Amino acid sequence: LTPKPELTSDPAGAALTGNTVTLTCRMDLSTGWDFYWYKHTPNSETKKTETNSYRVKIDSVSDGGQYWCRAGRGKTVYYTQYSDALPKAVVTVRPDERVFRGETVTLRCDIKWRGDAKWTYRWEIEGTNYQYKNSVSQMSTQEWNISSVDHIHSGKYTCTGQMGTQSSQRSDAVTLTVS
């Protein structure tokens, strides 16, 4: 059975331009392995490291995206399986991203990852109201119901998930506009 490493990131979630993210390829194997890092697709150009950590400086938007890792050793290289990519959260809004005052809005954070994983969800809001500027809310439920929305709820909503040591990538922002 070919081993399969687990990919984690620190800090968790999406990184902002200018930040550095450390990716770790975790495996329970003996020493002597080299680690191979792939960006965007598992068949892309690789970076090789002798340690199971890889630092990525996010200089531009193109440095973001999906990353994978695998390990290899030997003259004729024997490779492990590819890790799963870091899972990415996706936010959906019902009934719509553009709503009227007084309506009920439901935001939902979905993360596709190994069946029925138990995530803790973290919501971030970049709002137009000073109270909601860079506000953070941590909830264990993946749906967030806002009854009777008002102008103060207008803003950009993102979510990330945490499950033990595994973190998702931050979702793309969804803009809620209340008229």
UniProtKB/TrEMBL annotation:
Domain Ig-like: 5-71, 87-175
Keyword Endoplasmic reticulum: no
InterPro entries recorded: Ig-like_dom, Ig-like_dom_sf, Ig-like_fold, Ig_Fc_receptor, Ig_sub, Ig_sub2
Pfam hit, one: Ig_3
The entry's keywords: Disulfide bond, Signal
SMART domains, A to Z: IG (SM00409), IGc2 (SM00408)
The name this protein goes by in its record: Ig-like domain-containing protein
Lineage of origin: Eukaryota, Metazoa, Chordata, Craniata, Vertebrata
